[in-house]
Each structure stands twice: as structure tokens, then as C-alpha cells.
Amino acid sequence: PLRRQRQMCIRDRNKILLKLNKQAGFSLIELLIVIAVGGILAGAISASISQVFNVNAGSTNRMVAVKQVENAVHWITKDAQMTQVDEETEPVETGSFPITMSWLNNYDSPAAATEVTYSIANNELIRNYSTSTGQTSTTVIAANINTDISDTNWSYEDGIFNFKITSSVGNNPPAAETRSFKVLSRYFKVLTKYLQ
Questions:
Q1: DSSP state, residue 145
Q2: CA distance 103 to 187
Q3: pLDDT tens, position by position, 85-94
Q4: What is the torsion angle, in degrees rounded to the nearest 10, for the CA atoms of residue 16, residue 17, residue 23 and residue 29?
């Protein structure tokens, strides 16, 4: 009986080992396929996330460029409308910045002469303001201004200032905004009013 019991134990153990050997597992090929599919999914997800960040940064740069140009247009238009130009005594040069505009403010007592100069330094559009009463200020109007004369320039003809302002923010590729605009000077407005 002991021997028989021992044989049964060995037989049971062999059956258990046989069952364990027959259990299905992953083969090496299946494991490699799972790793490859996981790698493709991870690559696609990281590319999508990267694209979202790049588009977001590009949109932000574009909005900054638009805001810079809008601010420059606002201030330049305001000052150019006040400018008094006498083409016979003061020939107007055109081209690149700086530009100096001046006018006499007859509404103040005493009348005050005002001079505004716009210049570009370190890609910043700078407004220098001064009056005959001693009031002065220097303000950065816009940043990221292109200094190339084909991108940022001005001209004056027949009482009309023509301006072109370009701002570029970021790189690869930069987000750029360009505005071209015209401003009728005050002197020309007064002159045409009396000629009609």
C-alpha cells in the first residue's frame, strides 16, 4: 500500500506538471506586436499634444503681433492728425523712421508748441513727446517692430501721411502682422476747408 500510494502521488504530480505545461502564455512574437502597437499609440498621442502646444503658441504670438501694431496705429494716427505741415517752408522727407511731427496747440493758454518723434531702437517703436511748456515723456509704443524699410516705413504726399508698420513675434516661422494706413494732417484739413 505504501508503494502504491507513492506511485499515485508521482502520477498526480506528473498530471499537474503536464497541465501547467499546457497552459497558454504569450509567445515572443505576440509580445513584440503588443510593444509595437503601444509605441505607435504613444507616438501618435505625443505628436497630438505637441501640435496643440505649437498651435497655441502660434496663436498667442499672432495676437501679440496684432496688439503691437494696433497700439502703434493708434498713437501714430492721433499725432499725425494733429500735425501741421507747411510744405513750402518745411520740405517733408519720407522713408524710414524716425519721424518728427509738430503742431501748435492754440486751445491752451498760453499756446503750446508740441513735438513728437517716433523712432525705432532695439525693435521697439518709441514715442518722444515734448512741449514748449516743458512737459516731456518717452514711451515704448510697440515692441517686436521690423526695422527693414520694406516692412516699416512712412511717406507724406499732398497732406496725407502713409504709414506701414510690421510686427513679428516668435520664430519658426514668426507670427507677423502688417498694417498700412493713411492719415490726413490737420494743416491740410484746414486748408481744404477754406478752399471749398
A1: B
A2: 9
A3: 765 555 566 7
A4: 170
